[in-house]
Amino acid sequence: MTDPRELDPRFIPQQRLVGRLTALAFTGPSLIVLLIVLAAADDLPGWGRVALGVLWLALIAALVWHAERWPAKAYAHTRYALDADGLVIQRGVYWRSVIYVPRSRVQHTDVSQGPLERHYGLGTLVVYTAGTNHARVSLPGLAHEVAMALRDDLRLGRHDDVV
After folding, report:
1. Are 43 and 24 found together in one domain?
2. Which of 46, 75, 104 is the endpoint of a domain?
3. Residue 23 has pLDDT above 60, yes or no
4. What is the rounded distance in angstroms from the CA atom of residue 28 to the CA atom of residue 134?
5. Which terminus of the chain, N or C, has less C-beta within 10 A?
């Protein structure tokens, strides 16, 4: 395997924004649920109401903290390499995995871009393989140009392949 390469550093702020939006999407509905519970629990003592409010605030604070910290950790623990034999993806902060996609198993490849990825100039390489295990392998956090180049390189394949 050639030297593993890092993802694009723009992946960190893009993922932080995704995390913030997720936290925001969770905050509104969970606040409504908290208010309904507090309104319906007439027999709940005052300290119980305060405890529920503090618990809700702690949950939101933990979610925001995770949204800020996790992208840098995920970035630091993700590497990829492409050589003549295939694509290798290493990732995982706690549970680490190494995915190897041989060129001979590649059926087709795509590059996808959501609105936030497009804003940051990033793309996700998606490789579809023959077989059932890891039949769809994605590698987010690549510069769009790099994702396109990897897609083209995998698409062209090796010239000595015989089917």
Report:
1. yes
2. 75
3. yes
4. 36
5. C
64-73: Cβ within 8 A, 24+ apart? 64/19, 64/20, 64/23, 66/19, 67/16, 67/18, 67/19, 67/20, 67/22, 67/23, 68/16, 68/19, 70/15, 70/19, 71/11, 71/12, 71/13, 71/14, 71/15, 71/16, 71/19, 72/12
| Residue count of the chain | 163
Q: What pLDDT is attached to residue 99? A: 92
Q: Return d(Cα 123, Cα 111) in angstroms, integer.
A: 6
Tell me which of 25, 57, 75 is where a domain ends. 75
Grade residue 163 by pLDDT with cuts at 50, 70 and 90. very low
User: Which of the residue ranges 100-104, 116-120, 154-158 has the most confident prediction, judged by mean pLDDT?
Assistant: 116-120
Q: Do 88 and 121 sit in the same domain of this protein?
A: yes
Residue type, 18: V
| Distant-in-sequence, close-in-space partners of 40: CB < 8 Å, separation ≥ 6 | none
Rounded Cα distance between 133 and 131, Å, is: 6
